[in-house]
Amino acid sequence: MRTLGTAACPPYHIAFVIGGTSAETNLKTVKLASAHYYDELPTEGNEHGQAFRDIQLEQELLEEAQKLGLGAQFGGKYFAHDIRVIRLPRHGASCPVGMGVSCSADRNIKAKIKPRRYLDRKTGTQPRPVHSTRTASGR
């Protein structure tokens, strides 16, 4: 985390993913975890190798992030708003580890885009019309 520094506008939302069956799976999970998509994962694994959030490691890493002294602008303890740690099942011969960072102003929206309309998460079933591309003259 120290090498990241303040280049991406802290305080950050940070996601670590440990494991996965491939580096690609790991990095896809990093992106989704940084957007809080996996916040409802169980907090412990099972005998079938289910993915889980490691809440204890999240807390330890957040405490370490606060000790860095790399906060917004002039330093301080606000290097990270939050840290997510997701553990995935993996092959015994490899253990990919990924880290993703989103800035404080990270904004995400879920939407379904269909011809001539889209449904966003907030309105749910109320479709909004897509703005027309016609000019004022009607062309």
TrEMBL record:
InterPro entries, sorted: Class-I_Fumarase/Tartrate_DH, Fe-S_hydro-lyase_TtdA-typ_cat
Keywords: 4Fe-4S, Iron, Iron-sulfur, Lyase, Metal-binding
Originating species: Escherichia coli
Keyword Metal-binding included in the entry's annotation: yes
Any one GO MF annotation of this record: 4 iron, 4 sulfur cluster binding
Annotated protein name in UniProt: Fe-S hydro-lyase tartrate dehydratase alpha-type catalytic domain-containing protein
All residue ranges annotated as the Fe-S hydro-lyase tartrate dehydratase alpha-type catalytic domain in the record: 1-111
Lineage: Bacteria, Pseudomonadati, Pseudomonadota, Gammaproteobacteria, Enterobacterales
Pfam families, sorted: Fumerase (PF05681)
Start and end residues of each stretch annotated as Disordered: 116-139
Family, per entry: Belongs to the class-I fumarase family.
